Amino acid sequence: METDEAKWRPCSSCKGDIDFGELYYVCDVPTCNRGATDLRFCSLECWDVHVPVMRHRNPGAIEKHAPTQGEWEREQAKIRPAPTSVRPPSTSTAPSDGTVELVDEGLPHDILVVVSKLKAYVRARSGMNTSDGVMEVLSDRLRTLCDEGIRNAARDGRKTVMDRDLRSTR
User: Which H or E run includes 62?
Assistant: First the structure.
């Protein structure tokens, strides 16, 4: 695991570092602690900054301790097991036969959209709210679309996925 020494995560407000084993704060409002949001603050002053922005009614800050670097690495190993084989980066051009190897090992399964922008779009377009579950489904569809674009670029002998590779008119 490649991490800067003593750096765990950034503060959600000032973007300063929260070090491993250091005291930090989370908001006690559940919407601030969901997977996609997961707000954390290096100080009470930083927590105070987010309260008027989020328009909480009765907020509170909860003190927590960041994990040690060893605890964090063990936790991450459970979430994302290390790949069993490591491929060196390819310096050759895409295969001329139009095939490409799509690697699944060690592939991150993160949300691929900006949640706030998607929710704002849906609200502006229709006045509707957007469930957090939509982000996972949409990210899966984006992965499928990207895989198709990768195959199309390889078929054309390129190592760069372009907009035309994502169009379904092929």
Answer: strand 61-65
pLDDT digit string (tens) for 80-91? 655 554 455 554
Strands (DSSP E) contained in the chain are 9-10, 17-18, 23-27, 61-65
β-sheet bridge partners, residue 41:
25
For residue 41, give the 3-state DSSP assignment: strand
Domain ranges in the chain are: 9-79, 89-170
From the CB of residue 134, how many other CB atoms can be counted at a distance below 10 Å? 14
Instruction: Let me know how long the chain is.
Output: 170
Tokens of 139: 């990210």
Helix (H, G, I), strand (E, B) or coil at 55: coil
Regarding pTM above 0.70, the answer is no
Cβ atoms within 10 Å, residue 99: 11
| 37 to 4, 23, 143: CA distances (angstroms) | 23, 19, 21
